Amino acid sequence: MKKYIAEIAIVKPLHNLFDYEIPSDNAKVSPGMRVKIEFGKKIVNGFVMNIKENTELDQKRLKKILNVLDEKPCINKELLDLFLWVSDYYHAPIGQIIGLGTPSYLRNGKEMLNLNFNEIYRKRNMIRSDLELSNEQLAAIKKISCSINEYHCFLLDGITGSGKTEVYRKIQELVKKKDRQTLIIVPEKNLIPGLLQYFEDSNMNVLEYHSSLTPKKRFINWNLIQDCQADVIIGTRSSVFLKIPKLGLLIVDEEHDISLKNQSDAKYNARDIAIYRAKKKNIPIILGSATPSSETILNVLKRKYSQIKMRERVNKKKIPNLKIIDMTKTKNEILSEEVIEAIQDRLSKKEQVIIYLNRRGYSPLIYCKTCKWIPKCNQCGLNMTYHKRNNSLQCHHCCKNTQYQNKCIECNSDDISFIGEGTEKIEEVIKKEFLNSKIVRVDSDSTRKKGELQKIFEDIKNNKYDILIGTQMLSKGHHFPNVTLVAIMNIDQSLFSPRLKAVEQLAQQLIQVSGRSGRANKDGEVILQTAFPNNEDLLRLIKNGYENWINNLLEVRKNLNLPPYKNWGVIQAKARKVYDAEKFLLKIKERMKNRNEVEVYGPMPSNMQKKANFYNLNLIIQSQTKSKLNLVLKDCIPTIKNIPYQNRIKWTIDIDPIDYD
């Protein structure tokens, strides 16, 4: 009797598929099914990726599948092909990709559920009244609707408050009439509740999918989505892997946001996977942003994407002008006199104010005036941030946390100086300056409790707070009608950062947070405090606007032969001894020396040279074409796996890197 072999993926960081014999009584095994197998000395679950007739394994070593967990595939061919493509493109272990792209209940062998949406969720059953659309919104809807039945990538380049979400809704309604589903991907889960309500008000079945859901809720939603019981799915980056049988439209909101890029393990970019998926499915995709990324703008210039500009707010209000305050000429170190006066003016009018500082904690640096002691993380070698709320020193990179004893641990002196400020210190200063104001701090420290962030956002909209102090959690996607002043603080470090995309990200943050001001019927104001008011990038952004600024940045990158004009990949090695990481990368570089299609630089230290007791070194590989770059890296993986001391190294490959940490 002929034997059939199943190629099986194990949900572990392994690049290989593993051959197992299909027992004769389980001849109906097919790709996409889950099976139970013996792997090493353990019994584990795996996913069948392919069926074949032959194997290169010795028959004595060939094990049989122990049990088949599904009667029919739980993952369809479209999704299996997507997993394999992502693994191949990003050079990530296939098991790791499947682990990222499936709910834990599915991986653990739970039975598939047969559910009804209306029995699980209470539908709102209300019809949203049509809003009066602007001419720009109508033009955008008309242009996108012409490609509703085919692949086309649209950049919806709309300033903050221009009504991009309403354009999404109108196109989604057209898709729904064709009995198709829509997936909306957002960079952060705190953007989901507002979008959920927006689409639920349109009498749609709307589901969320992100890591903050309980494993059970995540599995329930996964089953409802794959049973076509959701019209709209709104999720974070992992939702790009969802099984959506009737997918008819993909939307990536805030497409520029770096949170769409997974920075651990498999370093995939959800935006780019969404574009690939739309192309394979032959459906339209919309990339929405007020500050499009340099990669996306370049693709517009190459005519790969169609750009739709929306340059007016729906209420005809202008984007507020940005005023610069030179902090070298002010008496106050933290809040300038102009900012204090502007806050007082807005509060007297019963309006709200945002104080934006993208740094949590109380002080990023403390030191002893007596012996010059500075607390550093012994795992990363970096300064630890002081958090006054719980009197602790924290490393914001490896998360190490130690109690602070209110004195120097070297000389026992209590003469300690606190340098710089985080959101905690700003909150303290604001409370002293504005005694009768209701103040809230919004950062990852103050919103750890489940549901706390959404409650704060609701309270802000209901005018329960006068002054909002926060990080980038406040900067994008939120509509606070009564906010009329945004004060931006301490952005100077990013102006001189060595990171490739630091200035681009800074420009995006400035425009995004500025867009929170004056969104309703009241005029807005934005004030930026800086010690470098004559910085060329800053002046160009403020004087010419983001569109001209990003085009100028692209010219600079082109002249310097930098991404996105060059294709980059990074092989990062982590080791407890820097010598091991360096030797490992030099071996790889040696194997690449005759590959003329790429240029190789390094080994060189990462931006963060040490993290969590591991030294980080990079090998940068660049090429004129992505296909040549990926071919060289793919050929290199067997070499990497055969390096003798590889077990002392943690290594990853990053395609289209954002930073080199």
Report what the structure shows.
The chain is of the alpha/beta class. The protein has four domains: 104 residues, GIY-YIG endonuclease (3-Layer(aba) Sandwich), CATH 3.40.1440; 194 residues, Rossmann fold (3-Layer(aba) Sandwich), CATH 3.40.50; 179 residues, Rossmann fold (3-Layer(aba) Sandwich), CATH 3.40.50.300; 89 residues, Ribosomal protein S10 (Alpha-Beta Plaits), CATH 3.30.70. It is 31% helix and 23% strand. It contains 18 helices and 27 strands. The strands form six sheets. A seven-stranded parallel beta sheet has the order 8-9-7-10-11-6-12, with helices on both faces. A hairpin with a 2-residue loop joins strand 25 and strand 26. Helix 1 crosses helix 2, helix 15 crosses helix 16 and helix 17 packs across helix 18. The longest helix has 24 residues. The model has no long low-confidence stretch (mean pLDDT 91).
Task: Provide tags for this entry.
single chain; 661 residues; alpha/beta; GIY-YIG endonuclease; Rossmann fold; 4 domains; 7-stranded parallel sheet; 6-stranded parallel sheet; 18 helices; 23% strand; globular
Lateral arrangement of strands in the main beta sheet: 8-9-7-10-11-6-12
Number of strands: 27
Q: Describe the main β-sheet briefly.
A: 7 strands, parallel
Strand percentage: 15-25%
CATH H-level superfamily of the largest domain: P-loop containing nucleotide triphosphate hydrolases
Shape: globular
Global structural class: alpha/beta
First-last Cα distance: 54 Å
CATH class of the largest domain: Alpha Beta
Topology readout:
Elements: E1 4-10, E2 18-22, E3 34-39, E4 42-52, E5 67-68, H1 77-90, H2 94-101, H3 104-107, H4 117-120, H5 135-145, E6 152-158, H6 164-177, E7 181-185, H7 192-200, E8 206-209, H8 215-226, E9 232-235, E10 247-253, H9 270-281, E11 284-289, H10 294-301, E12 306-310, E13 322-326, H11 337-348, E14 352-356, E15 365-368, E16 385-387, E17 392-394, E18 401-403, E19 416-419, H12 423-433, E20 439-442, H13 452-461, E21 467-470, E22 483-488, H14 492-495, H15 502-514, E23 525-530, H16 536-559, E24 567-575, H17 578-592, E25 599-611, E26 614-623, H18 626-642, E27 650-655
Parallel strand pairs: 6-11, 6-12, 7-9, 7-10, 8-9, 10-11, 13-23, 14-21, 14-22, 20-21, 22-23
Antiparallel strand pairs: 1-2, 1-4, 3-4, 3-5, 15-19, 16-17, 17-18, 24-26, 24-27, 25-26
Helix pairs in contact: 1-2, 5-6, 15-16, 17-18
